[in-house]
Amino acid sequence: MRRALAAAVALVAAVTSARAEPGAAAEVRVGVVVGADQGARGRPRLRYAEADAERFATTLISLGGFEEAAVRLLLQPRRAEFLAAVGEAEARITAARRGGAQRALLLLYWSGHAGDGGLELAGEVVSFAEVRRLLDRSGADVRLAFVDACTSGSLTTAKGATARSTGFELTVSASPSPDGTAIVASAAPGETALESAELRGSFFSHHLTAGLHGAADQDGDGRVTLLEAYRYAYGRTVAQSAIAAGLAQHPTYALELQGKGDLVLTEPGRADGFLVFPVGGDGASRWIVVAQGSPQVFEVRAGEDRPVRLGLAAGAYRLVRAEEKEVLVGAFRVEPGRTLAADGVELSRTPGLLAFTKGGARASAVQRLELSVEGGARSPVLSGGPFAPAASAALVAALGDNLALGARLTYSQSIQRDTGLRFTLRTATFDGGAGWVFRPRGTAGLEVTLGPVVGVGAAWQRLDGGEGATALLLRAGLEASATLPLSRRLFLVARCTGTGTRYSLNDAPALRLGLDAGLGLGWELWP
Length: 527
Known about the structure:
This protein is of the alpha+beta class and 527 residues long. The protein has three domains: 2-262, Rossmann fold (3-Layer(aba) Sandwich), CATH 3.40.50.1460; 272-350, Carboxypeptidase-like, regulatory domain (Immunoglobulin-like, Sandwich), CATH 2.60.40.1120; 368-526, Porin (Beta Barrel), CATH 2.40.160. It has helices at residues 2-15, 49-63, 79-98, 128-136, 153-156, 203-215, 226-245; strands at residues 27-35, 71-75, 103-111, 114-115, 118-121, 124-126, 142-148, 179-185, 195-196, 201-202, 224-225, 252-258, 264-266, 273-277, 286-291, 297-301, 308-312, 315-322, 327-334, 339-341, 347-350, 368-378, 388-399, 403-418, 421-438, 447-463, 468-485, 490-505, 508-526.
């Protein structure tokens, strides 16, 4: 592997007398960037696919020479919307050529689920063959695709190509700039791609984006090429996935480029400011940069033989330095035109960070934290009268993909009649429970949870004449709920709870069966 990689590097060094510059005046660059947390039926919802897409799109615009209007960001789109966006990108390329552009680059990025059938969008699929056709039929000189999904290596083996993990083989021609198609996949055929809650993204997309911000600039020339970005993302993805999951994830590529020069993807020198990481000796130090008020997170391993310069947008950041026995945290601010040294930021000790794996087991028990509010009705506890209006708030923690724990506070108030008496009835209950989560086939993001609940509460009964009574409530039952995503964090929730309530009123014990139901909205609080 090392010999092949060394040979590829030597080959590229021999033929890089000319390079395609990002955003050159005679070149138009167009991108379609897709993030989809929800895949096909039965798939667990991803946590960071859409965030990965947002970060990648921002990088293209800020450092890659892409005009903002030329990058179409799609979050959980329909299949037709994705195909229409590619069509719009082709129309932009055609218009640019008519306006005098001599070269064009089309970049497709996808972060989400994939299976044997292709790339998944909820209940729809874009086949690997169709992606290849979109690239092959493009009017761009260079067609580039980054696909971050499980089994995405199947795309690099389409049309008889061979999936390779390291080393680029360039076909040298007389053209000073590369032409053709390059596809980079985050995992080999049959492999699972991984996410990290610590990095707030997938391993591959995270390291690819960090590389484009300067971490991959191996020769220090202020430009990050396709070869440099791939080599960096490959090495870091393999290493971290092996540590986090015990099984390495191997990015692959299919390269059909011809030309003398390597393809420059970004120029980190376009950034507002810079953070420079010192030479790390044995490379044992990990640095993590977290933008405040933004989803940007970068992990950088200290260089063994050269400093690493990371291009950043102006703003406030947290800096984490993780070593074998301690974790240090500090804060700094990037100002336009300024360069800061990472080892000059004041750091203090903090508890260690935890690593997580994608779509399944995590080192932390909590995978997702949600808050919901509902309006509904409940059967009255102390009488056989009509249902009473009720309001509730619930906090739910998802543990893994199929288990959830929740707590709910509910209040109701109504006017009731019993044996000719008219009275006001108020109830307040606090319930907790666990539920098994499953995802029905043929639904787009629908999750159904079923499980037991137990709780306590109180009921206050007051007659019109002024007399009243209070009862302590002990509850147990079964709850079913369903959620349907409306946006990345907002979702619709419907719930029905059947309970048996035991209480004592006027020194007489009683047991009553009841029903609660609610409809409302929820918000994903974390991650």
